[in-house]
Specification:
- This protein has one domain.
- The chain has no helices and 17 strands.
- It is an all-beta fold.
Length: 165
């Protein structure tokens, strides 16, 4: 999935993300700005994706995550693939780039039984945790295409980068 922009409020009870609750493919040149809420303590939440087994590249998120638990991550709740050149913008240091903890609980097994999965073994390259205001400065986004894909202006999207049509 390329060039996805989401501004809003996302809520869920299992795998919740600003772009995808579960990503098994590719997310690139996308962003999420808004609030993510989980309705229970076992929910896997992330600013871009709750559960990632795909590839994520050139994305950013400025999330407000409520219901933070051990499997909440600023970028990804559970990562078992590749994330590159992506940024988390927040002024709240309560979460990390990828979810907390060594184990996550999979709620999709059966309603009455849970199974613990080992924490993700994914790769992260060129990703960073930044103050949200830093994401309003074009030079923050190393190797991003601000000629054909992105633009940035203090008058649009509260100063955060937006996708060109």
């Amino acid at each position: 999935m390329g060039k996805c922009a989401v501004n809003g409020h996302i809520t869920g009870s299992s795998r919740v993300g600003g772009i995808a609750g579960y990503n098994g493919d590719t997310i690139n040149n996308s962003y999420f700005i808004g609030e993510i809420s989980s309705s229970n303590d076992l929910c896997i939440t992330g600013g871009l994706a709750g559960y990632n087994i795909g590839n994520i590249d050139n994305c950013y998120t400025v999330p407000i995550i409520s219901g933070i638990n051990f499997s909440s991550g600023g970028l990804i709740g559970f990562n078992n693939a590749s994330i590159s050149n992506s940024y988390l913008g927040t002024d709240n240091g309560l979460f990390t780039l990828v979810g907390y903890g060594n184990k996550h609980t999979d709620l999709f097994v059966t309603p009455s039984k849970t199974v613990e999965l080992e924490s993700g073994n994914g790769l992260m390259t060129g990703c960073d945790f930044l103050l949200s205001g830093t994401l309003k400065i074009q030079s923050t986004f190393q190797d991003w295409d601000f000629s054909n894909v992105w633009t940035i202006s203090p008058d649009t999207n509260d100063g955060y980068p937006v996708l060109l049509p």
